[in-house]
């Protein structure tokens, strides 16, 4: 076998693994890799403006295509700038491989120029990480890194490569993937667990499917099987923020999102259920509210590929460690084999209809100001009317919750948002990554005026690669969710939540070669959205919305599902110190 440099071995590995796109930023410690990429045009390199942007682009690419995202950054500040995106991918279970440069092995530990302990820094925010010390080990490590990132519970894997390893040579042959001694994720469910789950579901009088991002991470088949099981059983379906689209928002069994800003019917159904089938969710604090009041009279089945997520927060009656698609397939097969019929859930659905009649997502219209909920609803209607594939990303804040509430998702992989880490600055670069992976789709980032500025420099990336990304800013001149909590928790003391000195977003977009649109009143909303969708190329929309709107419904921190607030009139006094600590 001919010998190749470590840099060439890396690139050959990426080609063998089917990598088509790499998001990165060059620097001294990765120049050999960039030189190797120069001779391999089959891999498209996207030059970002900041390394955090690269990680979020890789996340958006991965979540919208199902393929792992790949990042390439230099040592020191390049690697540390990527840490937020690595952590975000870990929290939301996104398959990503981050390749970082490192100073030569002989300089490690000497505080050399642009040295950082990348392995130490990323140990607790990555699924796994490697420091490769010889070029002969590089191929095996890269192939194993992709395997770990994409199997079991997906997540980010970091590969740190010293510069001298990139230059040194070694023979290269595509390695065979070895069975790892300790990494063997369980994908097939235990038969006893499936049996118990099916029988409990058949006997339940008030069942509810509590679904999460794990359904989407499992792949399109899992979403299809969820829909089939819901139809077979007649049970209602709710979802976490991360699971939207796994079950269609237009489906008969859909209750809407649950949790802190979920619907009245979804939260009350969870509270009153006699059986909760948790599928690919993790009972996080934004869903459960006060734990001692969460679903007090229900039995619980939890299906998750991550064993550590089961019984971590809420004790369950039937734990099932498995891939979601595999487990649902087994449940459906056993349900049919035993000839179970759809139960009579008439009374249960009647109770749900009563909760739904509260119309918890309604809001007061305004003839002078644009209500943010109306802006999202009109955006949804306009995109649906195009008949085209639409991918929505968001930043983090009130606009994120309004989008989750008022934009209907009927398919998986069309809703990309930062859930676990809540990363402002995620949505715009994620939209660029999604657009790169889905060139024929309409990709829209719904943003706030504060969060869009976190990675706004990536306007240049979209311009360079002629990506027709759309940014739809709900501009209320505040860090909206921070202001809302200050109003409800700190007696309206708005400490540093007003976004003073905002840029002119239209002119800023135009400076980068984008089309800029400003929407200032309800009468301009429909035409402004239509102009955005009909304009070729990237568009930034500054949509001025009501400044003091709050996001309801809402479960206050430290409260239970039965203490949901549906409008500002229900807010009484300030929260306890214990509740404030949970915000």
TrEMBL record:
CDD domains: TPP_AHAS (cd02015), TPP_PYR_POX_like (cd07035)
Entry's Gene Ontology BP terms: isoleucine biosynthetic process; L-valine biosynthetic process
Enzyme class: transferase
Identification of the protein by name: Acetolactate synthase
Boundaries of every Thiamine pyrophosphate enzyme TPP-binding domain copy: 396-543
Cofactor: thiamine diphosphate; Mg(2+)
Note on how the cofactor is bound: Binds 1 thiamine pyrophosphate per subunit. Binds 1 Mg(2+) ion per subunit.
Domain of life of the source: Bacteria
Lineage: Bacteria, Pseudomonadati, Pseudomonadota, Alphaproteobacteria, Sphingomonadales
GO molecular function, one term: acetolactate synthase activity
InterPro entries associated with the record: Acetolactate_synth_lsu (IPR012846), AHAS_TPP (IPR039368), DHS-like_NAD/FAD-binding_dom (IPR029035), THDP-binding (IPR029061), Thiamin_PyroP_enz_cen_dom (IPR012000), Thiamin_PyroP_enz_TPP-bd_dom (IPR012001), TPP-bd_CS (IPR000399), TPP_enz (IPR045229)
Similarity-based family: Belongs to the TPP enzyme family.
Domain Thiamine pyrophosphate enzyme central, residue spans: 194-330
Annotated source species: Sphingobium psychrophilum
Keywords from the UniProt entry: Amino-acid biosynthesis, Branched-chain amino acid biosynthesis, FAD, Flavoprotein, Magnesium, Metal-binding, Thiamine pyrophosphate, Transferase
Gene3D superfamilies assigned: 3.40.50.970, TPP-binding domain
Keyword Hydrolase attached: no
Limits of the Thiamine pyrophosphate enzyme N-terminal TPP-binding domain: 5-119
Metabolic or biological pathway: Amino-acid biosynthesis; L-valine biosynthesis; L-valine from pyruvate: step 1/4; Amino-acid biosynthesis; L-isoleucine biosynthesis; L-isoleucine from 2-oxobutanoate: step 1/4
Record-listed E.C. numbers: 2.2.1.6
Catalytic activity: 2 pyruvate + H(+) = (2S)-2-acetolactate + CO2
One GO CC term, this protein: acetolactate synthase complex
């Amino acid at each position: 076998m001919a010998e190749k440099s470590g840099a060439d071995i890396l690139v050959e590995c990426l080609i063998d693994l089917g990598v088509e796109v790499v998001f990165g930023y060059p620097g001294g410690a990765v120049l050999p890799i960039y030189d190797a990429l120069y001779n391999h045009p089959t891999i498209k390199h996207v030059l970002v403006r900041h390394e955090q942007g690269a990680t979020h682009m890789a996340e958006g690419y991965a979540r919208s295509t199902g393929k792992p995202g790949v990042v390439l950054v230099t040592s020191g500040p390049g690697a540390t700038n990527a840490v937020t995106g690595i952590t975000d991918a870990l929290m939301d279970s996104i398959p990503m491989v981050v390749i970082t440069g490192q100073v030569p092995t002989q300089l490690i530990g000497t505080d050399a120029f642009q040295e950082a302990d990348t392995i130490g820094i990323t140990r607790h925010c990555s699924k796994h990480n490697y420091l490769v010390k010889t070029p002969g080990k590089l191929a095996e490590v890269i192939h194993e890194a992709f395997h770990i990132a994409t199997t079991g519970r997906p997540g980010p894997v970091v590969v740190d490569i010293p510069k001298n390893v990139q230059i040194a040579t070694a023979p290269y042959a595509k390695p065979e993937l070895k069975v790892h001694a300790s990494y063997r994720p369980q994908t097939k469910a235990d038969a006893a667990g499936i049996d118990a789950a099916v029988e409990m579901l058949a006997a339940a009088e008030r069942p509810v499917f509590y679904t999460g991002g794990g359904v989407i991470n499992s792949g399109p088949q899992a979403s299809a099987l969820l829909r089939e099981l819901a139809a077979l059983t007649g049970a209602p379906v709710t979802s976490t923020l991360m699971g939207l689209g796994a079950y269609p928002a237009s489906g008969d069994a859909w209750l809407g999102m649950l949790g802190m800003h979920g619907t009245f019917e979804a939260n009350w159904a969870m509270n009153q259920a006699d059986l909760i089938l948790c599928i690919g969710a993790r009972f996080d604090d934004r869903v459960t509210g006060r734990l001692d009041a969460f679903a007090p009279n229900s039995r619980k089945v939890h299906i998750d590929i991550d064993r550590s997520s089961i019984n971590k927060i809420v004790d369950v009656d039937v734990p099932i460690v498995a891939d979601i698609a595999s487990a649902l397939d087994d449940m459906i097969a056993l349900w049919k084999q035993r000839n179970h019929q759809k139960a009579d859930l008439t009374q249960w659905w009647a109770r749900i209809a009563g909760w739904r009649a509260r119309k918890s997502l309604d809001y007061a219209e305004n003839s002078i100001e644009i209500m943010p909920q109306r802006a999202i609803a009109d955006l949804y209607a306009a995109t649906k009317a195009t008949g085209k594939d639409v991918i929505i990303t968001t930043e983090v804040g009130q606009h994120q919750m309004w989008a989750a509430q008022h934009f209907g998702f009927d398919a998986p992989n069309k809703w990309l948002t930062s859930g676990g880490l809540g990363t402002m600055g995620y949505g715009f670069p994620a939209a660029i990554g999604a657009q790169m992976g889905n060139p024929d789709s309409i990709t829209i980032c719904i943003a706030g005026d504060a969060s869009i500025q976190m990675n706004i420099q990536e306007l240049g990336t979209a311009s360079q690669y002629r990506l027709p990304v759309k940014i739809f800013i709900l501009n209320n001149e505040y860090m909206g969710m921070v202001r809302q909590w200050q109003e409800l928790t700190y007696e309206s003391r708005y400490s540093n939540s007003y976004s003073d000195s905002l840029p002119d977003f239209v002119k800023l977009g135009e400076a980068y070669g984008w089309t800029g649109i400003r929407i200032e009143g309800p009468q301009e909303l429909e035409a402004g959205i239509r102009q955005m969708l009909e304009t070729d190329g990237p568009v930034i929309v500054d949509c001025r919305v009501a400044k003091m709107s709050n996001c309801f419904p809402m479960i206050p921190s430290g409260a239970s599902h039965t203490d949901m607030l549906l409008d500002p009139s229900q807010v009484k006094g300030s929260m306890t110190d214990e509740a404030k600590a949970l915000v």
